[in-house]
Amino acid sequence: MSKIIAFTGSNSETSINDKLLKYALNFFKKNEVNYIDLKAFEIPIYSETLENSKGIPKDIQELKLKIEKADTLIVAVNEHNGAMSAFFKNITDWLSRASSNYLKDKSIFLMSTSPGEGGAQSSLEYTTENFHKFGGQVVHQFSLPLFNKNFSEDGLTDTYKAHLQSLITNLENDL
């Protein structure tokens, strides 16, 4: 059984990307997924001065260790101005300072949603490039446009639900 961890790159308590991620985790049948709430971490804004004076924050060291032990990551990223949020960028900055290859040999399922028609595609592209720089391999992507139209208390509309289930089944079969 593969070790899988999942987290969302948003610090919003009402994150639609977190809702999508938690919904998606219900489709894993062959593997257990460990959800990590990054909002609970205490991580200062990165600066070289801070790194030199205090070192890598404890929560970053713990997250790096969890990533090292995992085979696969499931990551939901929100979009701010066409890129990942400042919150998540800060976490990836610290992780890259802890190890320039912190994603080495990691398979990554990347997903995003937005209230608009773009489904946070720009953030998916930005995050894919960012993760590749640090050794990660994005093996699947899922983008959900128009979150409020395509997601409800009952979950995704049929077309998107089938697509997400198919991607997760393919991921699990590849593990």
TrEMBL record:
Any GO MF annotation of the entry: oxidoreductase activity
Gene3D superfamilies according to UniProt: 3.40.50.360
SUPFAM superfamilies, per the entry: Flavoproteins
Highest taxon of source: Bacteria
InterPro entries in alphabetical order: Flavoprotein-like_sf (IPR029039), FMN_Rdtase-like_dom (IPR005025), NAD(P)H-dep_reductase (IPR050712)
E.C. no: 1.-.-.-
Chain ranges passing through the membrane: none
Record key words, sorted: Oxidoreductase
Domain named NADPH-dependent FMN reductase-like: residues: 3-141
Protein name as catalogued: NADPH-dependent FMN reductase
Species the sequence originates in: Psychroflexus salinarum
Lineage per the UniProt record: Bacteria, Pseudomonadati, Bacteroidota, Flavobacteriia, Flavobacteriales
